[in-house]
């Protein structure tokens, strides 16, 4: 490869603060998905008597083995 063809590679931010932020955000989103798919139901539901969220994820809930009905 000739000197004029050296590739430019973008740098990646690997600082500890950035990694901690990504880890916290990923953990929060994972726990939110876990709650919405598997736990939100009935008296403990964040959405009150509205069962739209529960019904929307109902098949996924049974597929993943969460207790339901
Ligand atoms: Zn069910």
From TrEMBL:
Transmembrane segments: 19-37
InterPro entries xrefs: CbtB_put
Keyword list, A-Z: Membrane, Transmembrane, Transmembrane helix
Alphabetical list of Pfam families matching this protein: CbtB
Protein name from the UniProt record: CbtB-domain containing protein
């Amino acid at each position: 490869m000739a000197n004029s063809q050296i590739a430019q590679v973008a740098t990646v931010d690997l600082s500890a603060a950035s990694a901690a932020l990504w880890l916290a955000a990923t953990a929060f989103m994972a726990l939110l998905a876990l709650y919405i798919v598997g736990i939100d139901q009935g008296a403990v539901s964040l959405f009150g008597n509205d069962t739209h969220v529960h019904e929307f994820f109902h098949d996924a809930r049974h597929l993943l083995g969460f207790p339901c009905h």
